[in-house]
Amino acid sequence: MRKKILAVVLATTMVLGLVGCGSSGKDASKSSDSGSKKTQTEEFNPDKVEDSKTIEEIRKDLGAEVKVDKDLKLGAIAKSFSNEFWRNFKNGYEQAAKTIKAAGVDVTVKVDGTTDESDEIGQQTMTDNLVNQKYNALMLSPISDSNLTSSVDNAKKAKIPTINVNDGLISAADYFVGPDAYQNGELAAEWVSKKLGDKGDVAIVVGMAKAFAARERTAGFKGWIKDNKSGLNVVAEQNADWDRQKAKELASTWIQQKPDLKAIFCNNDDMALGVVEAVQEAKADILVVGVDGIGEAYDSIRAGKLDATVDSFGYYMSQVATEVTLRVLAGQDIPRVTHTPQALIDKENVDKDAKDIIGWTDPTYVAK
């Protein structure tokens, strides 16, 4: 069964890569070979892989040191840096490059992002350019589940390892690094349940329908309600495409049409902050929970506006992705899925250092 973790999260202890459990519907669909690279691409779901590991488990199994060849070129493709989460992601990649350089190894980490979160073709072009420039490995966070498929195919032909990082599932990629997105929703639902006494009408603002994370976060929220026979009642669910203004307008409509609404779960913090604006303008008593843990969300929690966020710690996630990539290039036997830290953040732990919440330690790189 899925581990009961909310109490641990609220106590701000480490929550790392908890996979597996809870929902009987989710577990029933797991494949006995789901961790294998031979898994059929159309069946691959990183949240259902049974033999995934955390970076701590990988370090324990394979050793803390990562031997790195000089002159490696790593390419990272993200979404729009107008979103703070992806700026944090970029900062994490840049910090990883500094850590590698401090170890005396000359490695290039090039990070590109699109101008907006819907530019699927632009993101594909960026990725194809890295393949053509013969980068040694690619760390990819696609906009949708399909827009980088052909780019990954091109990388495979060029024998370039591909690591799918966090968002937009690339089932053809060699590896996946990111949080258990289904658990994002579970953490949010369990927190809302406790705050509302496990009863009341709730709604979900979904990101882009094409995005794996949006689907899994929504499924996790609803799955927790079903599996725990909760009294929470989902009365509305609609896409806002990761857009703050769209989410605000959607929430404003719900507030007018559904006077008994008690909580709104949003698939990311940008949308949650838009919903907060709508709630404040309506002077409504509605809990709002987001996902991502961007700085503005933390500030809003401190100000008593946003109620909670599920932080996936993008700054550290991209550093984990870089370490996994370098371990792959060093020839280590890495599991297909590496799950990364996440935690529920509310007023109780919003001022605690992220390193302490997730128990982070920097990787150890040495020249090969």
What labels would you give this structure?
13 helices; Rossmann fold; globular; 40% helix; alpha/beta; disordered N terminus
Topology (SSEs and partners):
Layout: H1 6-10, H2 24-28, H3 55-62, E1 65-68, E2 72-78, H4 84-102, E3 107-113, H5 120-132, E4 137-140, H6 149-157, E5 162-165, E6 175-178, H7 181-195, E7 199-206, H8 212-227, E8 231-239, H9 244-257, E9 261-266, H10 269-282, E10 287-292, H11 295-302, E11 308-311, H12 314-329, E12 337-339, E13 343-345, H13 354-358, E14 364-367
Parallel strand pairs: 1-14, 2-3, 2-4, 4-5, 5-6, 6-12, 7-8, 7-9, 9-10, 10-11
Antiparallel strand pairs: 11-13
Helix pairs in contact: 4-12, 5-6, 7-8, 9-10
Helix content bin: 25-40%
CATH class (first level) name of the largest domain: Alpha Beta
Low-confidence region ranges = 1-42
The total of helices stands at 13
The fraction of residues in strands falls at: 15-25%
Please provide the ordered H/E string of secondary-structure elements: HHHEEHEHEHEEHEHEHEHEHEHEEHE
Structurally, the number of domains stands at 2
Question: What is the molecular shape?
Answer: globular
Number of strands: 14
Structural class: alpha/beta
